[in-house]
Amino acid sequence: MGHSTTLASILAAGFAMGAIYALIGITYNTMYVTSRVMSFTAGQLGMLGGVLGALFILRMGMPLVVGFVLTLLGCAVIGIITEIVAVRPVLKSLDQHLYVLSTLALALMIQQVTAIEWSTEPQAFPKLFGIGSGALDEKFWLPVLACAVAIGGLEWMQRSTLVGRAFLAVAEDNFAARALGLPERNLRIASYALAGVIGGLAGFAGGELMLAFFANGGFLSFYGFVPVALGGLGNNRGAIVGGFALGIFQQAANFLVGGIFASVAVFVVFIVVLLAAPQGLFGTSTARRV
Amino acid sequence: MTAMVGKSPATVAAAEAPKHSRAVAAAPFAVIAVVAAILPFVGNDYWAVIASRAAIYWVLVAGLNLIVGFAGQLAIGYVALLTVGAYVTSVLAAGNVLPAMPLPICFAAAAVTGAVFGVIVGLPALRLRTFYFAISTLGFATIVTQVALAWQSVTGGGIGLPGPEFPAPINTPWGFYAFCLVGAALATWTSANISHSRFGRSLVAVRDADVAAEANGISKTRLLLPIFLFGGAMAAIAGGLFATLQTYITPDAFTFDLSILFFIAILIGGRGSILGPLLGTALLTVLPEFAAPLASWSTFLYAVLLLVIVLAVPGGIAEVLDFRNRRPLVSGRAIVPKPALLSEVFVSRPAAESLTLNGIVLAFGGVRALDGLDLEIKPGEVQGLIGPNGSGKTTALNVISGYYAPQQGTGRIGNRTLPPERPELRAGLGIARTFQTPRLVGEETVLENVMIGGTIAGRASFLETMLALPRRWRDERELKSQAMRALETVGLDALADIRANRLQHSELRFIEIARALMLAPAVLLLDEPAAGLSPDEISRLGALIREISNHGTGVLLVEHHAELIFDICQHITVLNLGRVLAQGTPKEIRSHKEVVSVYLGG
Lengths: 290, 602
Known about the structure:
The complex is a heterodimer.
Chain A: H1 3-35, H2 41-59, H3 64-87, H4 98-117, H5 138-160, H6 162-172, H7 174-179, H8 184-205, H9 207-210, H10 216-231, H11 236-257, H12 259-276
Chain B: H1 10-42, H2 45-70, H3 79-94, H4 103-127, H5 130-150, H6 152-155, E1 161-162, H7 173-195, H8 198-208, H9 210-215, H10 220-246, E2 248-249, H11 256-269, H12 275-290, H13 298-312, H14 316-320, H15 342-345, E3 355-364, E4 367-377, E5 382-386, H16 393-400, E6 408-413, E7 416-417, E8 431-433, H17 446-452, H18 462-466, H19 470-490, H20 505-517, E9 523-527, H21 535-550, E10 554-558, H22 562-568, E11 571-576, E12 579-584, H23 586-590, H24 593-600
Parallel strand pairs in B: 5-10, 5-11, 8-9, 9-10
Antiparallel strand pairs in B: 1-2, 3-4, 3-6, 6-7, 11-12
Helix pairs in contact in B: 2-7, 2-8, 2-10, 2-11, 2-12, 3-4, 3-5, 3-10, 4-5, 4-10, 8-17, 11-12, 11-13, 17-19, 17-20, 19-20
């Protein structure tokens, strides 16, 4: 393999994984801005995007478009369930961080049901279009495309729709938004459904790369949170930059020092950046305590 | 017993209560020890394996309990440290990298490795929000498994390697059980020693009242470091024992389910308890043996259990079993301080040092909350700090206490400067304070809350405390009697054994004062101490504050109660818009034209 092909494959895989991490990061952020909760279910939504896609299209033989829409719908429902079961009951006592445990419990339940009812082995994901080969294979560019679509969609929503502006208002100042009469609870539910769609999209677009595998949930929960931590909570631009940086760093480290030390390197960078810049590289400082 | 205010002399109740409660607290542990000792005579070898497993899990959970249950840090990936310990002991004992080592060295190496990784994984907890720590432990768990799988030359990859083998008589099932039992007993003893000390109380304070913890000189970093070392070492030792029990280890043996089991054992048991998590661990280890048909659903059921506990019984078994705190308290209690006892609380005379602020400027965005503030608090003086809402009174307190860093200006006490944004150093400089909203540990007793105030006076190191060496006992004895005297001084000694969250608001204010007195502070900052008090209580509070200043403490009193201010202050500073509007004696202030128009009205 020549140098240029190696570089091309590192970049292709790096951008593809980076796009998936970025989308999971946006999933975290979307849930966070309306509830101030970071939910462990973010990675499970990504996992479900792959598993549901494979279930609907390969196992049940549905047409691509139908399978795609149903996958996103399914993930949106899981997002809403997250809000009702694991988030709303603990919102009153955010300072006790019970949400860490309640969303972890729900994430584990989702993962275990998938393991038992689907499979504990990675299963094939359908080839969606069969376009491109090598570094330009669709499994590499589909996640990047999905990421671009999601960013564009969110941008459009925030600029041109009332719901999008309401999200921004709630994200900026929860109390003020409520005082203005914004339906805070409905907006929160909507944001969890939206988060489900984004997470599902990440898993569906990354299905050919990561396969339909129950253990992707925990994996994505961690690697998808890294860009959020790097970019600052609630900061989507930071998550995108952080996601792509992580993807390329990981693939390069994979190639240069091997798989074991690549994951160790990611972990070390994660800890070091967190300690050096606790608010993330693009974040703002936290609220006052006294 | 202690609820019967006024019937029995309070001092007698206080002296007897701890001895009595210590015996009661030890009884369940004795019962567990007896059951564990009988087990080999009634059970078969299979029981030995299950019981050994429970004991091994407890070695890990005992350490993790201090992190999760006491300090409230959500370490969800602790199975990773079990894995590290198991592989370090197995690899060293098998000699497939270095020459084969004797078992004590293998276990010591595992403990050291576990302690180091315990701290590395814990680093985010020292500075960041809870979720970051949770996710970093999760990430560590993911990575350890990946490394164990991929590093075939050392770990044997997916094929695995044999666990360490013990010599006779520990190589039989019951022999190994006895060995693990000794380990579990040691784990219980050391973690109990830590929990019943200034370290244990500080952990809970960091969990439930972190701002107050800092004001009392507790540095989260310095406190959590030894705890992470301890927890990591215990987890790794448990890992070595686990590898022996399994006889052969592969990465598959260390599923994330185990982490959840450890975690739930602590939550079921209840935060801040040792007995509860011990029972929880035993229960969760044994339970799956009776529910074999459900084995594949066990993780799912654990997850459901976790959700149910979090949503329905956040207090766990310990709260359900806490009968003592369900007895009704006497209603209509009066707080009658005994200021005369103050000389017994102040173990040394407060340092005669003035606190001065010079030209403090602090702006939040465009708002100048403090705009060139000068202030001096002299020893033995009660100074009132008054002004309309938003004039900067509480901000001034927060600058003195180190929660805010001023953009300009300096603060000094005596000839030492006040380091900005280092609230945990204030107690050491002789500065104590109370808060506008009392910040106490609701789940601890009144006495324990007051003892927090004397944390920096403790002399026993972490190691001495863990091993219950003489200095730990002396620390505890002295702190306890000093705290008791502080409670008598503020008039709350009869409530010493009651959980703080059962008391009335006015009582909480006096507990905070008692806690602050433990320092024999050179400067005492009181943030609206009279808010919510009855007129009688306010006049008693006034007498108490005056007596505190008579002992040489300089008092800064932020208050809206004009009567109290004019009654007890020798000097009054009036703030408006972040600047000093007027300074002088109560008489001068009362007749100051601008003060009257801006603040006093009339």
